[in-house]
Task: structure prediction
Amino acid sequence: MPLDGLYGRIIMDHYRHPRNRALVAAPDIHARELNPFCGDLAEVQMKLDAAGRVAHVGVQAEGCSIIQASASMMGEALAGKTPAELEALAARFRDWLQGRSPEGAADVPEGLQALQVVRQHPVRLKCVLLPWVALEEGVLAFLRRRAGEH
Amino acid sequence: MTAVNPKARRAGAAVSGLDVAKIRQDFPILGQTVHGKPLVYLDNAATSQKPQAVIDTLVRYYTTENANIHRGVHALSQMATEEYEGVRTKVRQLLNAAEDREIIFVRGTTEAINLVAQAYGRQNIGPEDEIVISAMEHHSNIVPWQMLCQERGARLRVAPCNDAGELLLDDYQRLLGPRTKLVSMVHVSNALGTINPAKQIVELAHRWGAPVLLDGAQAAPHMSIDVQALGCDFYAFSGHKLYGPTGIGILYGRAALLEAMPPYQGGGDMIRSVTYEKTLYNTLPYKFEAGTPHIAGVIGLGAAIDYVNAIGLDRIAAYEEELRQYGTKCLSTISGLRLVGTAKEKAGILSFVMEQAHPHDIGTILDAEGIAIRTGHHCAQPLMERLGVAATARASLSFYNTREEIDALVKGIDRVIEVFS
Ligand SMILES: Cc1ncc(COP(=O)(O)O)c(C=O)c1O
Result:
């Protein structure tokens, strides 16, 4: 069927029960990204532990089911990562989603792989990516800030 | 009052009786299947489909007549020139303009508005002057004016609308004054379907001596237009929404205004003589048609106008109104669905939001059922903001749509509810 399971169990579960939705106070990394074309919005906050790894994650999204599910799934993949690892993950995820990754599915955590169906709906890829754009922006700003401090 | 007088509309409704099954045969694309389902094309406000007559005209033109116009003495060039100019007359008749030279061929509504902003605006609008638009404009009737205001130090004023998407005429009137140097207004809203009281607007603006441009992109394909009865100074529309090719559109302008305006672009065709010291501009309409125009597009548009005229715009309006009422009734019964844009005077546009699903999801699920609608802000972000929605789903109707297709839309929406329940 042409929907190709776009509204399958995993995506709908994340849409209906988004994880890590609570705002994280005083975050080390945070960003907000808006898609003016459709009013979609994604926000992300992260607090790092003493070792510089993600300890608390908050992600919030407004818009269609796909962006909300994507935000929730992304939030689950971030814990324990350093900012550099977050950057690398975002880049790998982007490549994988757009079918450009050499290792295929092995390149991204299993928890994200249900999003593969969105490849069949290219106009919806930007919905998936918006939370990741917020993540990348947040990390970039954090790294710049940190570099400035030294 | 609007361009379609209500009496003619009612009379039309009784006799609309279009043979839609036969009409549909004229549009080859409508026979297609999409994702294995029969195509239900409800995105006519974005662009309309093309009848075979238009497609054939393009093929015939390129096969037997292709030549540049206005510059050759040879047979093909003369033939092409004649056809091209013949379409100008057809457009004049379509709009009931007074003279052929008041019809300028442009790329579309967007270019028509930009032409007026650049050629009329830069000459006539200065610091502290005001341009009045409405809260329901397409971006193409906002941004050119913003650019002009920025350049000339003028101000853009926006007339408000109510929650139904109707212009508030009292507020509108209060916005007008001695500083008003131009009024630009969408005739029919692409996002909501509202038919604005164009004639009344023109009268109000003219009291202050301000010329009025009407953006007829969504009006010209769906009702008969009489620019003289409306009294407007400029009227713009796009061929591709009137069953013609893309890349061709019309600017109507009152001759006196067009004559006083400087050219929009420089080049061939728009000049009478050129020396390095001085160039004399051509007369209307050529002054505004620099370079080789979209000849095939113009000729294709002529075929589209013939096609629409053979059915009759009043009958088209009456049929589309029946269909809109049917669609409104059907959609109103769906729980969780809210129509956005409920003006009393409305054209065939059904914009809606649902509690259950975001417009993107509605669009994707309908697409899987072969149903094409538009989702998003419809190039009217300020309007969406005013109405408190980020986006809507929009079904826009044409005379080739049927009640069965509305039923298919309703079934598709049922499917949306099923997926999201
Ligand atoms: C009301 C309105 N104005 C202007 C335009 C712009 O038309 P075009 O893109 O053909 O120039 C549109 C098209 O979407 C429209 O609906």
